[in-house]
Amino acid sequence: MLRFMHTKTLSAAQVREALSTLGKHELEQIAVESGVPFHTLRKIQSGETQNPGIDTVAKFSALAIAIGAWAALHREKPF
Q: What does 3-70 look like in DSSP terms, one character per residue?
């Protein structure tokens, strides 16, 4: 039996916005946790990559949503 799990994926614009205020150290941490290479995140952040691939967005989305949920539970800023 196959099970399909619906997961929310952020848009490229939402990913760029989430990355916009992060520094190098934070991007490095996100790269490790999400599996998205640091340089890919940096290119999305700078706007050099306007339309990141769905795999990249999905990996980042899963981490961002998890961090956001944790932050909501602990009432802290997620990034």
A: ---------HHHHHHHHTT--HHHHHHHHHHH---HHHHHHHHHTSSSS--HHHHHHHHHHHHHHHHH
